[in-house]
Design goal:
This protein has about 280 residues and is an alpha/beta fold. It contains 10 helices and 8 strands. Strands 3-2-4-1-5-6-7-8 form an 8-stranded mixed sheet, sandwiched between helices. Strand 2, helix 5 and strand 3 form a beta-alpha-beta unit. The longest helix is centred in the N-terminal third of the chain and has 18 residues.
Length: about 280
Amino acid sequence: MNSIFSNKTIDKHIFKELKNLLLLSDFGVVATEKILYTFKKNILKKNISDTKVAIIYFKTLLLKMLTTSQKFEYCCFEEIPFVILIVGVNGVGKTTTAVKLAYFYKQLGHSVLLAAGDTFRSAAVDQLVELGLTYDIPVFSKPIGSDSASVVFDAVNLAIKQEKKILIIDTAGRLHNKNHLIQELQKINRVIKKCLPIAPQEIFLILDAGIGQNSIQQAKIFSSHIKITGSIVTKLDGTAKGGIIFSIVNELMIPVRYIGVGEKIKDLQLFNQKKFIDGFFNIKL
């Protein structure tokens, strides 16, 4: 970004270089075209020629795009238990994210219960139970091969009985193009509502920043079958460019609630739009 705006005046090459950079940074075609159209239109309208002024405007534009697309309130936990369903495909970090989220809420003073709804993989249940013990977070689980919907049913009722403030349910990794797995997810959602009609209050879709535009395809399929209330973007500490977040909030209108920036238990953070945009530049607004 800084090298593109290193020239003293705005010229047509800047627009071309910006387009290439945004596309290579996983912004996607739709978000890239929207950003460049607005930027170019206003630069010409306001007759801005100084790149120092232009870069401030460009940064403000990016921030505005995220904030206007992210109109939501973070969990207030008025209803107890507040049920959060974790969904996504295999390999995006659902189980570890569920634990990090539980730890995050626990540090805020909330009572949390984790439910091992991924009954297809023994490793997933074992991992959740072990991490629960490590961080002193109770985990409800059943033997491998149990019906996942029955696990969820019992977990919700246990959370109600124990008056837990938050219940976080881990689910099996579902290939977004497998209808029978999506249908099972819908069944889990219905079971939760039978126990607690207002739940789940949140359905978080876990997305891997490292796979770029494939995350958008996953999100589109999930969103067409179940109401996603927010996303958690993982693995932003690796080679991921981060532009995928613009596609998520602008194409799908799904707010990004949290981001994963490492493997440690405290490496799950509330998504801060301004801090995120600051990371693209050497200057701060």
